[in-house]
Amino acid sequence: MELVFASNNKNKIQEIQSMLPESIKILSLSDIGCHEEIPETANTIEGNAILKANYVTQKYGYNCFADDTGLEVETLNGQPGVFSARYAGEQRNDNDNMTKLLFELENETNRKAQFKTVICLNINGEQYLFTGIIKGNITNERFGNQGFGYDPIFQPEGYQHTFAQISLNEKANISHRGIATRQLIAFFEN
User: Fold this and answer.
1) CA–CA dist 179, 131 (Å, integer)
2) Could you give the CA distance from residue 88 to residue 75 in angstroms, rounded to a whole number?
């Protein structure tokens, strides 16, 4: 079965494809000829996932799924949240985003945070939502060079390393995206 993943983020596509059964082949937005930027104008992570999935289904007619992920920092009242990718500006630069977040937490002792992923699946005229959350802390500096986004400064609860210091497989086993994706896989297996 082919299923469109409403993304062109090669890292995300690779991460999710590695978790799905071989019977499901993921197509990216560029694979279906969607080269426009899909608006992410909702004020929640769930809302953006729904917007993206609906855009592909309505405009291109494919069964598809879309995700949205945000890093929610407790002491910043859940920010950057829905603005995680553009936290330091529209250039969507991971280094700039981490630099801004570390600066804002410089004198904070409460560094609790969580990653939240919501996957919206549109299939055969039905819509389903799957949510994955992993709690952890923001480190004082960057560690590791694996992964992407805020991975070098996010240390999951119960672990001595950041997401950027562990393998893709280990991250997939514990991450927010992994949790939501396993719910998606369980849906297909039932």
Assistant:
1) 7
2) 18
Domain segments of the chain as ranges: 2-189
Is 68 among the residues known to form the active site?
A: yes
The answer to whether the CB of 172 falls within 8 A of the CB of 18 is: yes
Cα–Cα distance, 109 to 124 (Å, whole number): 48
**3-state DSSP percent of the chain in helix, strand and coil, to 5:** 35, 25, 40
Among 31, 68, 96, 151, the active-site one is 68
Is residue 151 within 8 Å of residue 135, measured between CB atoms? no
Residue pLDDT, tens place only, 89-106: 988 899 999 999 999 999
Q: Which residues of the chain have pLDDT under 50?
A: none
CATH fold of 2-189 reads Maf protein (3.90.950)
Q: Report residue 157 CA to chain centroid gap.
A: 18
**Which residue pairs, CB below 8 angstroms and at least 24 apart, start in 9-18?**
11/147, 11/148, 12/67, 12/177, 14/168, 15/168, 15/171, 15/172, 15/177, 16/177, 16/181, 18/168, 18/169, 18/172
Q: State residue 180's pLDDT score.
A: 95
The span from the CA of 28 to the CA of 6, in Å, is 6
Phi and psi for 93 in degrees, rounded to 5?
A: -105, 120
